[in-house]
Amino acid sequence: MSAFLCLFILLSAVAFASGKQESKKAEERPIVYEGWLRSWEGVSLVLSTHQGPNTDAYKEMAKEFERITGAKVTILDESWTDLLSKHLASYAAHDGAYDLVTFFYGWFGHYVEGGLLQDLNKWFERKAITDPSYAIEDFIPAVLEVYGRYKAGFFKDPNALWAVPYKFDVYTAQYRADLFEQAGIVGKDGKARPPATWDELLADAKILAKKFPNITPVVLPLAVDDPTVSTFLPIICSYGAKKPNPWYDANLYPQFQKEPGVRAARLLKDLMPFMPADVLNYDYDKVNTLMAQGMAAYALNWNAYLPVLLDPAKSKITDSVRFDNTPGGVGGRPQGLGGWSIGLSSDSKNPEAAYQLLQFLTGKKTAVGLALKGGSVARSSAVSDAQVVAKFPYYPLLVEGAKDAVARGSDRSWTEIQRIIGVELSNILLGADERKGLEETARKVFDAAKQAGYNPEKSGARP
To answer: Contact, 137 vs 286, CB < 8 A?
Structure first.
């Protein structure tokens, strides 16, 4: 054998070993915790996610995983606006940069149709490395369905489990009980009565504006794109739009331009005089800040933002803030579902260790601890736990809201479609005719779906 060939074989072996850390089979690694978690000494794992208090809670959990298993876990928390493009670029290069990835469920189509994720059902069959107490059934069913399974656009197996919940988010109402009571907006018991319908909210806003001229009666997230669409979602469904997806049918043919959408847009227009003059620039953080400062009487926001309102170091309304489901109408009282999923990257260099990390972070046994650390947990065992409810009293509302949850799209075209809808809704709130505006938006959405490769024309001609 030539010296050159020997050198080539040696270098190839080194390269293979360096690129695959899991040289020892998982079943050969010693079990170090609870009869299932194995030693991952010498293995490095990377979880890619977004910034925020939810991720901060997961960081604490990851440190515990490191202590138990000997693995090195790096959590890359970045601006959520950058994650989709970074994940797509990494997969295109097949650089194996990430072992676990988190994503907004509205991006699901990119991850499933693009091949970025592994089916977790196949991993749960690996009993030697699976937590016997993981209890997939403990996840709130409606949430797991949206966060974990992909049934839109082009898909091969609607029963595949591509992810599990990472951050559980339900659109929730917050209000100052003291202001409601002083304004006489009370129930038979004399205590603050939050609005049960959107018409009641409008009526309450008029009373609050008259009673407290220096307080903003209502503040809703209405910045262009994600906040506008999130706010519009429960309103359009409560006015009778199709649930859980009011935006389009299975072929991505637009539906939001119908009468429920027109009524929802008109309601938001009617509320505009009772909100900040620049409310179309208010994102979730800005809404939360105004409430925490005690400068607003009523707001909507994702539950992941609510711990701030209960923190005396950050909020002036800890004693007076109360929580409720968003208002309803003829279509019931549907609650908007947001949130993020976590899945196993198809490019992971260490999939077995990554799978065990995913279970450790999202398992039933760690759920209560994660929730108490500030994580937003979609497990029944956590949301009904007495300690969790005592610290975060809005948790029972999340379970109730999830029973009639409504959602945004999840196919590959949704990111562009959401932007289109958000921009056009902003134009309507600035004065454009709601019916004509929604009809024009529907035409743009139809075109965007076709451009993404879908077939809305199967349901009908361009609106």
So the answer is: no
Cα angle for residues 30, 57, 326 (degrees, 5° grid): 130
The C-alpha angle with vertex 162 and arms to 161 and 165, in degrees rounded to 5, equals 90
Residues 41, 31: Cα–Cα separation, whole Å: 12
Are 131 and 175 a contacting pair, CB within 8 Å?
A: no
Residue 409 has pLDDT above 90, yes or no: yes
Q: Does 204 have pLDDT greater than 70?
A: yes
Please, how many CA atoms are within 13 Å of residue 252, restricted to the half-sphere of its CB? 27
Place of tokens 């650390």: 373
Least confident of 23-37, 188-202, 207-221: 23-37
Upstream peptide bond of 244 is cis (omega within 30 degrees of 0): yes
| Residue count of the chain | 463
**In whole angstroms, what is the distance from residue 65 CA to residue 370 CA?**
13
Domains of the chain, each with CATH number or no CATH: 23-162+338-403 (3.40.190.10), 170-334 (3.40.190.10)
* pTM of full prediction above 0.85: yes
CB 289: neighbour CB atoms within 10 A? 17
Cα gap 368→140, rounded to integer Å = 14
